[in-house]
Amino acid sequence: MFKLWSTIVKDVRVLLRDMVGISLMFVMPIILVVVVTSIQNSTFNLVNKNKLSLLICNSDTGQASKQLIKSISKIGMFKVALVPTDKSAQQMANAMHDNDAMLGVIIPSNFSIKVEAKSKNIAGKALTSFGLAGDSSKKVGDVDPLTLYYNPILQESLRLSVQGGIRSALQLVESRETLRSLYFSINEKQLPENLENEMLNNNTAINEIPVSKDGTRATPNATQHNVPAWTIFAMFFVIMSLGGSVVREKISGSFIRLKTLPTNYLVGIFSKQITYLAVTMLQAAVIFSMGIWLFPFLGLPALNLPSDILALIIVTVICGWCAVSYSICVGVFADTQEQANGFGAVSIVILAAIGGLMVPSFAMEGFAKTAANFSPMHWALQAYYSLFLEGGKLKDVVNNIIPLFIITVVLQLITFWGLKRKKLI
Fold it and tell me: In the predicted model, what is the mean pLDDT of residues 237-266?
């Protein structure tokens, strides 16, 4: 025990002298968590709270186009502004740039006439099918399409949401005109406004409830998504200090000197695991504390810890142990510190990418989805998400902990084999 304690004290002193490694393990992940969470929170606000600026060039003078503009304004996701008529494509692009608008719509000049003609034709067909007198013999062309201009920086998912919103507004206008034509054909008088609103606005409400395993209904936010993910990334980034430390000891001859002493290098390896496991636990504590207490002062949502703290600790310990095991494994097989740092940094980014930290796992297909199962970050992230987002308990994350533990054991065995192969133990 004295040998182990002395080795731990030595490793702590070496670690404290490595200020660059400490900054990479603590300062860099903290900045990363704050920046990424701020960006993603701004994206969430853009979709959920803020409105996209939309310029509308209305070349039509009828009622249908006015109803369309009114319907688009009621959607809630657009900040509508009207621009002068007869805008060309280039003029519309310039207007969008001058007004810092993300979207632009041009309504054709014959929009109201075409919508009214099409509505009367559909109403005539409906009356004919009812066995009533209706004029449906006249062929009517389709309504000229709206022209939607958009800023290329808009992501496809957001652009599809915009299209869906405008299509809904357009469908409402066409349905209103068809309903008016049908009512007038039957009753020979205008459709009362209160009846029209009652028939068109009779929508069934949709209740959105996030699925959770503990029965809570707290809506997940950008903090709940990002803090656990980048905590895992920070843990694995101990490779920049630990991997280099193992290589330095090999190059300096520490292994050879240990063979002349009444001890074994396995004690040193075990010491490094304990020391850097404590570092990973400290990383998690610091980042989680930031999410709880600092984020609200930065205008970001606060981090809500899961109800099962024991499960959180167990997942963090196994994830930290896996990160330490991977770092030592790389250090054992690397011949120089540059190799350890270079391979370590690149491999961590790759593991993070296929593990779901950068792109959600459910969005992956084919090889990427299969490769995610071999990334320890994938299993750690799924365990954290189950705790933070779904309100899971320890029994709910066992299926994620077991693969993570198996990967850790495999890394330990590979490290032991590497030490034997290099005759270091």
Answer: 72
